[in-house]
Design a protein that fits this description.
Elements: E1 15-26, E2 29-40, E3 44-48, H1 55-62, E4 70-75, E5 78-79, H2 85-90, E6 93-96, H3 108-115, H4 121-134, H5 136-139, H6 151-164, E7 169-173, H7 181-196, E8 200-204, H8 208-213, E9 217-222, E10 225-231, H9 232-242
Helix pairs in contact: 3-6, 4-6, 6-7
Length: 251
């Protein structure tokens, strides 16, 4: 696949998401130590690091699933540090967690209708047409229970749910995990498409070279701390130095 990395945004682009000195724990286990970085409006940021570095914890903190012990999280100009997950989602932040984030007991179409429920009847119909036009593989299974889809199809449904009701920010956590290479290509094509609609991205991904190819900026997390942050071209050497075990990275 060709490198279609977008141009890095200008420094004056306002931050849509901003973490300031965030700390988080699971019981006695401390997962994040003073994490600070931002996601500018209409950009894609790659969050990379080894297993256990705290990447998924960051995703859960910004989406309200895990409460920060210290520091603050700002989204779209609001301090959302203490907001419940539903309120953050309603403000325009969508979280596609690791695994299959679909309602297994609902059909494909019902999953999409539920995601688009705030659009109104007419706009929901248009949104479904757009989603099924984009994800033709899902269109063939529109009346099938989501829980009976393949792993790749369920990941596609997760992205289609964002496409039908565009959000200001999509936080993606390992959507390609366990998928065949051809399906991974499709997942990243869909992420590019969602980004091109104006949705900002914070992407956690094991395929480091793939996520960097669609990102403006990168944040490297090591043992719960930010070890490097900046434009992709500037952070590349730090990734090679800090994540030598990642064969997916290529300059």
């Amino acid at each position: 696949m060709t490198d279609e990395r977008p141009q890095a945004p200008h420094d004056d682009v306002p931050a849509l998401l901003e973490l300031r000195d965030v700390e988080a724990s699971y019981g006695p286990y401390r997962a994040l130590f003073g994490v600070s970085f931002s996601v500018p409006e209409r950009t894609a940021v790659a969050l990379v690091g080894s297993n256990g570095a705290g990447k998924s914890t960051v995703a859960r903190v910004v989406s309200g699933l895990v409460r920060a012990k210290a520091g603050s999280v700002r989204f779209a100009g609001h301090d959302v540090t203490r907001w419940p997950a539903w309120r953050i989602a309603r403000a325009g932040l969508a979280h596609a967690p690791e695994g299959r984030s679909v309602f297994a007991s609902l059909t494909v179409e019902e999953n999409l209708v539920l995601a688009a429920r705030a659009l109104g009847t007419r706009r929901t119909s248009d949104a479904l047409d757009r989603a099924f036009g984009t994800f033709s593989q899902l269109a063939a299974h529109r009346h099938q229970l989501a829980g009976t889809l393949s792993g790749g199809e369920q990941r596609m449904l997760s992205l289609a749910k964002v496409l039908v009701a565009p959000q200001r920010l999509l936080v993606v956590d390992e959507l390609s995990f366990g998928l065949a290479p051809a399906i991974v290509d499709e997942v990243f094509d869909m992420l590019r498409m969602i980004r091109n609609t104006g949705t900002s991205l914070l992407v956690i991904e094991q395929h480091v070279d793939r996520v960097l190819s669609i990102s403006d900026r990168a944040v490297v997390l090591v043992r719960g701390r930010v070890a490097a942050e900046g434009a992709v071209a500037d952070v590349g050497p730090a990734i090679e130095r800090l994540l030598p075990a990642h064969p997916q990275w290529s300059a």
